[in-house]
Backbone:
DNA sequence: GCAAGGTC
C-alpha cells in the first residue's frame, strides 16, 4: 500500500517527506532522488517544474517546410513532449508509479502546479498503473504542521485547474510559433541587413513592448513648452519656507515678469491664513509577489530578475514563505502569533514587536485578493543582520524589507499634519505647504514606506480674523525668484514601473514578469540604461510595422480576454477545447489580416531603408543606412515612423568603428571581472573598470575625450552611493597615475588633475 | 531559430 507523492521541486519534496516522518534518500538515477518515509510507506518524488512542453511536431520543425499559418489550423502542428531534463524524471515516475497504490499530486497549489502534476507527470504513472488512485495535497506553505494537516485532508485532483494551464500552454505555443515565424520571414530582407536572425512575437512580450513603444512615442514627440514660476523664500523663526505664487505656472512670460518686477524687492509678507489638517495613514496590506518585487526593485535599486531570484533563495532557505503568490489576504487561521513571537527578542524589531503584544495588535491588515493558493509573503524566522543563514548581503537586505513590511501590517496608523499658509506680498498671493509627521506609527518599523516629511515649522503668529485689530502678522521675505522652466515628457519606465504596468494590465504572471522584461532585453528590443528602460530601434521598428493592423493583438485587452476564458475553464464554466478553438479562430483572423497587409508593411520598410536613417541591431551596432554623428542622431525624427536612434554607443578608442561592450564575468565564482571590450574580436581593445561596485554605461559623454561615462554604484560603511568615471580617461589616469577621469558627484563632468572643472 | 510557464 505504498504512496507516491509528486512534488514540483526538491526543497518542497524534502519538506513534505520530513514533515511526515523520518526520511531516507534514494538516488533513483543520476538526476533524480526520492525521499522515502518508511513509517508511512511514502515516496516523495521531486520534479523540476514542467517536465513536458509544447513543441512543433517533426513536419513543422523546419521554419520553411510548412506554412506558418498551418500551425494555427493543423491540430497536429504542436505536441507536448518531454523537456530536455524530463527523461530521468519520467523513468522515476514509471518506476514508483508501478509499485504504489496511491499517487498524491503535491505540486504547488496553483494552476501551473496542477498542470505540472496532473498533465505533465500523472499520465506516466497511470500508463504503467491504470488502477492507481490519484489524489492531491493542497499546501499553502511548507511548515511542518501545515503539511501534516493537509496530508490528513487529501482532496480529489483539481482537473479543471490543470486544463486551464493546458489551454494557456497550447494558445501561447500556437500564437507564438506561428506569429514569430510569419513576422520573421516577412521582415527577413530587413533583418538580414541588420544581422538579426528573428523577431519573436508572443502574447505577453509583444503586448509589453507595445506599451513601451507607446511611452517612447510620447517622449519622442514631446514638444516642451516654457512656463514661468514666481516663488518667495520666507523666514519663519529660524527656518525657511518656500511659497509659490497662487497663479503658478504662468504660460505668459510678460505677465510673470510684470508681477515679478513689481514685487521683487519687497521684504515683507503679510500672513493672511494658516490652516493645519491632520490625517491618519493606515498600514499597508500584506505582500504579494507583485508588490514585493516593486518594493525590492525600488528600495534596493536592483532589477526585477535579481529581486525574484533573491526571494526564491530566501524561500529555499526557509526564511520566508513561498514568494510566488497573488494573495494579499491571510487565511483567518494563519498563526501570526507564532511568527511574531520569534521577533520578540530581535535586536532591531524586538521593541516594536513587544509593543504589538502589549497593545494586542496581532491581527494583520487585509488586502483584496485571496486566491487560495499561497499565503502572502511572510518571514518564517527572526534573523539578525549578521546571521549566517543569509547567503549574501542582498538576501539580508531583501529579508530586512520583508520582515519590516510584515511587522508593519500590525502597526498603529501613522499621523501627519498638512499645514498650508497663505501670504500676501505687495498684493500678490502666495501659498506654502508643509507636511510633518506627527506620529510615526508603522513607519517606525518600515521607514521605506514613508514619504518625505518636512521639519516642523516654528509656531506661526496667530492670524487675527477680526478687522478691528487692523494689522496682520508679517514674515520677513528672504528673496523672490522668477524662474523659467520647461514642461517635461513622462519618464521612461524603470523595472519598478514596468512591473506596476504589467500588473495593472494583467500581463504575465507574478513569476514570469521579470523573465518577460529580460526577453525584451535579450531580443535587443529594449535596453536598460541606469534605472531607465529605453526602446531600441529594433523594438521600435517591429511595433511600428505591426501597430496599424495588429492593435487587437498588441493591446493588453487580448491577454485579459484569454485569461478571462482560462478562468472559465478553471471554474468549470467553459471547456478547454472550445476555449482553445475560439482563441485560435480570433488569432487566425489577425494572422490573415497581416498577410493581406504584408505589401504595405514591406513598402514602409523599404521607405525606411532609403531615408538613410540609422537602424541599430544587436549591441546597438549601426548596421544599415547612413550613419550620423552620435550627437545629431540624438535628435528626434519620427516622420514617417522612422526610428530615431536612442542610444549613443561607446566607440572603441583604437579601431574607432566598433562599439565597446560592458562585460561582467565571474571567474571561479569568487572574483568578478568588469571591463569594456571592443565588440570586434580581432581588435581586442579593452578598458578596465573599478573592481568594486556595479558599472552602467551611460549615454552622456566625457567632455575631454567624448567617450561614454560609466556610473559605478557601490556601497561603503553600509551606505549605497554612486560616482562617475570616464573609462578612457580613467585608464589613461591609471597609466600616468594622474587621477584623471574621476568625479564623485556630477554626470557631465570635466576632470583635470583629479578636479572636476564643472563644479 | 519561436511562447509562456515552471525550476536550478
Residues:
Amino acid at each position: 500500500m505504498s504512496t507516491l507523492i509528486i512534488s514540483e521541486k526538491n526543497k518542497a519534496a524534502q519538506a513534505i517527506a520530513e514533515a511526515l516522518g523520518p526520511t531516507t534518500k534514494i538516488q533513483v538515477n543520476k538526476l533524480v532522488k526520492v525521499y522515502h518515509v518508511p513509517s508511512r510507506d511514502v515516496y516523495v518524488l521531486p520534479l523540476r517544474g514542467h517536465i513536458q512542453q509544447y513543441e512543433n511536431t517533426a513536419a513543422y520543425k523546419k521554419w520553411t517546410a510548412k506554412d506558418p499559418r498551418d500551425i494555427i489550423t493543423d491540430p497536429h502542428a504542436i505536441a507536448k513532449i518531454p523537456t530536455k531534463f524530463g527523461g530521468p524524471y519520467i523513468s522515476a515516475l514509471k518506476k514508483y508509479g508501478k509499485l504504489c497504490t496511491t499517487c498524491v499530486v503535491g505540486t504547488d497549489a496553483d494552476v501551473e502546479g496542477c498542470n505540472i502534476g496532473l498533465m505533465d507527470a500523472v499520465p506516466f504513472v497511470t500508463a504503467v498503473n491504470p488502477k492507481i488512485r490519484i489524489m492531491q495535497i493542497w499546501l499553502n506553505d511548507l511548515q511542518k504542521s501545515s503539511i501534516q494537516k493537509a496530508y490528513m485532508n487529501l482532496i480529489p485532483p483539481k482537473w479543471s485547474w490543470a486544463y486551464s494551464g493546458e489551454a494557456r500552454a497550447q494558445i501561447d505555443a500556437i500564437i507564438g510559433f506561428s506569429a514569430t515565424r510569419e513576422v520573421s520571414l516577412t521582415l527577413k530582407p530587413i533583418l538580414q541587413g541588420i544581422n538579426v536572425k528573428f523577431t519573436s512575437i508572443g502574447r505577453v512580450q509583444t503586448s509589453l513592448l507595445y506599451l513601451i513603444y507607446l511611452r517612447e512615442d510620447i517622449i519622442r514627440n514631446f514638444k516642451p513648452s516654457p512656463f514661468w514660476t514666481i516663488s518667495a523664500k520666507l523666514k519663519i523663526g529660524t527656518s525657511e519656507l518656500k511659497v509659490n505664487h497662487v497663479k503658478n505656472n504662468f504660460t505668459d512670460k510678460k505677465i510673470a515678469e510684470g508681477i515679478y518686477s513689481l514685487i521683487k524687492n519687497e521684504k515683507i509678507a503679510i500672513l493672511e491664513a494658516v490652516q493645519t489638517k491632520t490625517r491618519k495613514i493606515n498600514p499597508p496590506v500584506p505582500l504579494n509577489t507583485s508588490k514585493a518585487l516593486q518594493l525590492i526593485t525600488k528600495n534596493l535599486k536592483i532589477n526585477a530578475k535579481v529581486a525574484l531570484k533573491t526571494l526564491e533563495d530566501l524561500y529555499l532557505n526557509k526564511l520566508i514563505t513561498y514568494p510566488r503568490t497573488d494573495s494579499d489576504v491571510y487565511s483567518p487561521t494563519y498563526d501570526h502569533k507564532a511568527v511574531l513571537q520569534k521577533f520578540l527578542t530581535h535586536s532591531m524589531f524586538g521593541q516594536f514587536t513587544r509593543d504589538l503584544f502589549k497593545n494586542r495588535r496581532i491581527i494583520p491588515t487585509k488586502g483584496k485578493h485571496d486566491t487560495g493558493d499561497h499565503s502572502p509573503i511572510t518571514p518564517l524566522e527572526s534573523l539578525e543582520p549578521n546571521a549566517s543563514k543569509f547567503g549574501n548581503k542582498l538576501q539580508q537586505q531583501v529579508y530586512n524589507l520583508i520582515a519590516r513590511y510584515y511587522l508593519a501590517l500590525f502597526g498603529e496608523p501613522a499621523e501627519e499634519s498638512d499645514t498650508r499658509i497663505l501670504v500676501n506680498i505687495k498684493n500678490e498671493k502666495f501659498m506654502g505647504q508643509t507636511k510633518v509627521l506627527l506620529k510615526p506609527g508603522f513607519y517606525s518599523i518600515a521607514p521605506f514606506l514613508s514619504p518625505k516629511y518636512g521639519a516642523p515649522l516654528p509656531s506661526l503668529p496667530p492670524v487675527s480674523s477680526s478687522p478691528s485689530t487692523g494689522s496682520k502678522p508679517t514674515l520677513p521675505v528672504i528673496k523672490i525668484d522668477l524662474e523659467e522652466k520647461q514642461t517635461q515628457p513622462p519618464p521612461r519606465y524603470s523595472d519598478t514601473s514596468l512591473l506596476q504596468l504589467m500588473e495593472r494590465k494583467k500581463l504575465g504572471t507574478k513569476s514570469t514578469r521579470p523573465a518577460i522584461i529580460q526577453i525584451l532585453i535579450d531580443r535587443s528590443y529594449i535596453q536598460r540604461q541606469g534605472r531607465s528602460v529605453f526602446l531600441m530601434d529594433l523594438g521600435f521598428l517591429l511595433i511600428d510595422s505591426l501597430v496599424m493592423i495588429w492593435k487587437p493583438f498588441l493591446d493588453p485587452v487580448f491577454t485579459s480576454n484569454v485569461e478571462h476564458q482560462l478562468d472559465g475553464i478553471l471554474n468549470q464554466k467553459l471547456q478547454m477545447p472550445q476555449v482553445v478553438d475560439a482563441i485560435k479562430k480570433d488569432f487566425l483572423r489577425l494572422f490573415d489580416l497581416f498577410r493581406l497587409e504584408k505589401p504595405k508593411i514591406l513598402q514602409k520598410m523599404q521607405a525606411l531603408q532609403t531615408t538613410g536613417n540609422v537602424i541599430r541591431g544587436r549591441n546597438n551596432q549601426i548596421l544599415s543606412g547612413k550613419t550620423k554623428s552620435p550627437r545629431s542622431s540624438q535628435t528626434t525624427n519620427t516622420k514617417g515612423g522612422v526610428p530615431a536612434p536612442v542610444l549613443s554607443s561607446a566607440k572603441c578608442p583604437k579601431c574607432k568603428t566598433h562599439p565597446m561592450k560592458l562585460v561582467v564575468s565571474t571567474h571561479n565564482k569568487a572574483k568578478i571581472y568588469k571591463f569594456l571590450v571592443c565588440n570586434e574580436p580581432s581588435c581586442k581593445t579593452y578598458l578596465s573598470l573599478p573592481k568594486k561596485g556595479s558599472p552602467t554605461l551611460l549615454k552622456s559623454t566625457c567632455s575631454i575625450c567624448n567617450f561614454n561615462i560609466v556610473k559605478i554604484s557601490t556601497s561603503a560603511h553600509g551606505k549605497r552611493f554612486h560616482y562617475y568615471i570616464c573609462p578612457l580617461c580613467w585608464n589613461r589616469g591609471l597609466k600616468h597615475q594622474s587621477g584623471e577621469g574621476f568625479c564623485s558627484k556630477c554626470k557631465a563632468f570635466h576632470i583635470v588633475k583629479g578636479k572636476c572643472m564643472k563644479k
Notes: The CA atoms of residues 463 and 472 of chain A lie 6 Å apart. The first strand of chain A starts at residue 3 and ends at 7.
